[in-house]
Structures
1.
Amino acid sequence: MAMPQYDKLINELSAPGRIAFSLPEPDVPVSDVKALIPARYLRAAPPALPEVSELDVVRHYSRLSQLNYGVDTHFYPLGSCTMKYNPKINEDMARLPGFAQLHPLAPEAVSQGALRLMHDLAASLAEIAGMDAVSLQPAAGAQGELAGVLMIRAYHLSRGEKRTKVLIPDSAHGTNPASTAIAGYHVVQLKSERTGEVDRLDLERHLDIETAAFMITLPNTLGLFETRITEIIEMCHARGVQVYMDGANLNAILGITRPGDLGFDVCHFNLHKTFTTPHGGGGPGAGPVGVKAHLEPFLPTPVVVKRRGRARDEGQRPEESGVTYGLDWKRPQSIGKLQAFWGNFGMLVRAYAYIRTMGPAGLRSVAENAVLNANYVMKRLEASYDLGAPGPCMHECVLSARRQKQQGVTATDIAKRLLDLGFYAPSTYFPLIVEEALMIEPTETESKETLDAFCEAMIQIAREAEKSPELIREAPVTTAVRRLDQTLAARQPKLRW
Ligand SMILES: *Cc1c(COP(=O)(O)O)cnc(C)c1O
């Protein structure tokens, strides 16, 4: 059988004169289009559109759609990204015409449902995280970090303190130093202990009058819970240092503990990770940010507020009588507006639907099962691979291909071989502090059967690394394309055919 032409663009399938439609000759006089359109709007030459049959078009795009790899078709163990299954009911809710077709500039009076949803979602997230207020505006975790750090900056300035540094562990995700630097701070990298936990002596050394904040991911990027976190937060607070929790790993602690209760001042949520709004391919996402009361005056504008007035609507339920929702812009200490309109509203609807369908007990079981699944995978693989950090882990486990590297097989090679065996690759080379890291996050939505199949593939690869390393270095051989230059498309984009 001939290989499908995956590598061809639709333009390359073009054959002169081939067309995708056949219409009968018109039975009315035909005007000369060129006479009707002013000359300055006419093209000099016809556009270079591909000349293809209907069947060419259908086959080309159907094949391309089948090359898509996603959680709806395959297991996606990408660590740190929480690629869990996104229930389809969320999609249905986001497509309700009242939400999907609402114009972002519609007046408050006709946007009450949307405003209420935003108000209630913010309240739910605040409850889940033990925070006092939440802004839904940031479009991603990274922007939530920026908003959080800007609020911390505004807070210090309001007290007449101009602090200049933010401390971030060396295990941090790259967005942490990036958003902190964009907010105008000098980033100081802290050392981690061998276990991935913060080196408290190094922290102590850097906690001074110039330090504005300490930013930490919990559980950390090695998938471990920082056991002395409350002590660390107290150390920071004693020096007037604000503590930011990167909440990308909230999936591990949902319903079990709350950042606010641990003492954090700020934390962001990645709705596209923890709260099943789809992600991948760069967006859209949503990264709401929660704060304690002392930071509330600095929230981005506008803030969605609930107002009590006179009864407005006959049809309202008694408990809602007289309640309206609106946008509060009059916030003199606010860091300002961060996003077009009100954030990525469609994502907010999906997250709201998820939280309401799960309920408190359901959300807790998310964390319990996510942690159970990650530990199951780690236990099954610990004989074949070195561990990146000692277990037990939280919602993800980090392996090291250190042992395989002695046979000349790297984490990249293992990741590529997994593609041949029908699995998406784990995150590789992150966190940076683990040699040849392979970071696996199974999530709570996968069955034991799927996890077993994945573990067996990983064990097979470890065996192959010993017996026939050259085979792994060739992988992948079954995919439409082999090993790509991973940066060429970003550095030299070819945007025209
Ligand atoms: C994903 C992630 C981020 C950044 O979140 P985005 O929504 O991708 O901007 C930050 N920190 C950690 C630990 C993450 O996993």
2.
Amino acid sequence: MGARSRKLLLLLAACALAASEPLNKTAIKSDMATDTIFQYEDYDSAEDQEVLFSEDRPCPRDCICTVSQGYRIAKCNRLEVGTQKFGDDITDLVIENADPTFPINLDDFIFKKLGLHQIATIKIVNSTIGFVGPNAFHGLHELYAVNLSNNKLKTLHPETFANNKKLLLLTLSNNQLKFPEAGSHDYFLNASSVQELDVSYCNMKYITDSTFKNMPGLMYLNVAGNNLSDMDANTFKKLLDLEELDLSDNNIKSLPEDIFSENTELATLHIQRNPIDSVYGLQISDLLTLNAGQTNIKFIGPSMFNGMTYIANLNLSGNSIEKIHNQAFHKLVELNYLDLS
Ligand SMILES: *[C@@H]1O[C@H](CO)[C@@H](O)[C@H](O)[C@H]1NC(C)=O
Ligand SMILES: *[C@@H]1O[C@H](CO)[C@@H](O)[C@H](O)[C@H]1NC(C)=O
Ligand SMILES: *[C@@H]1O[C@H](CO)[C@@H](O)[C@H](O)[C@H]1NC(C)=O
Ligand SMILES: *[C@@H]1O[C@H](CO)[C@@H](O)[C@H](O)[C@H]1NC(C)=O
Ligand SMILES: *[C@@H]1O[C@H](CO)[C@@H](O)[C@H](O)[C@H]1NC(C)=O
Ligand SMILES: *[C@@H]1O[C@H](CO)[C@@H](O)[C@H](O)[C@H]1NC(C)=O
């Protein structure tokens, strides 16, 4: 593509941006999906923290306990049943960058045994977890968010979170986890309340139509960076509440046309950095945002987006696009933002 036509395309993009002022649906939907994540992050970044100390609510060895906006946070270097005893008012447990020569072993009932009966969030990141017992999180009825990213974790029993009925957010990214094999009917986790699951960079390789069948509440699913390739048309058909799906940084060459036919809530799809060359025929009735940057899309024909006519944000940047049909975006009456850089 010459410099001249590139300029023209950019102009086109700018026009599309200027011409449409109507309400910004993306902003509304995506805010909803990420709200809870940011709330969770706020706990340990708040500035008005005060150190907690009291006779009857002791802060255990190797921990610092603080209060912030009503949350009682224990930040620890390690966990050890027997020597540590937490006050049952602790709501948040944080372990970051723990010494890798002493792997953290999450034995059955460990959090209950430590006295963490009211715990709402557990964040153990950038450490080494030796193993997680199938009942490690048992009895934690207020548990709302768990972040176990980057811990060299290898396996999780499918029923690990089956009894945590309030669990909404689960982050397991950057662990070389075991997932059901191709062709198997096994499921990854039985966790019906979880709404947001991040299993990015987890060495997943295959995703079957059974992998997430016992997580019907999923609204946000991140499987980026897993070298996933071909997918069965039924892969996501049980996830009826799915709003955002991140498939970026995989090895996907094509997607079955009806793979999202049951996902009527799907508003945001990320497929950037996959060797996919077309989204022609893909049916996603309510899609608002499509990120298809750095793919192999070279030609944009007149009907490539006919199955996604409500797109408001379309990112096709970093593609070696050679030709765009003059009717390519004709049906996208809601198009607000177009990136062809
Ligand atoms: C729409 O909302 C997104 C997300 O908040 C924002 O980045 C973008 O600039 C908005 N677009 C317009 C045209 O207001
Ligand atoms: C989980 O922890 C990692 C590492 O600190 C952080 O980057 C990520 O944002 C956290 N995720 C959530 C959902 O809190
Ligand atoms: C994770 O640990 C490594 C060293 O082990 C450190 O360089 C890095 O900054 C840590 N990351 C976070 C998010 O704490
Ligand atoms: C999932 O866990 C629930 C307990 O919360 C249990 O009743 C149900 O049988 C489990 N489902 C499967 C398929 O194991
Ligand atoms: C990704 O999967 C392909 C086969 O689908 C394989 O040839 C390749 O080595 C894998 N890459 C990585 C980084 O695992
Ligand atoms: C489009 O995607 C590219 C990466 O693929 C990113 O750098 C760019 O910021 C995205 N544009 C918008 C507006 O989000």
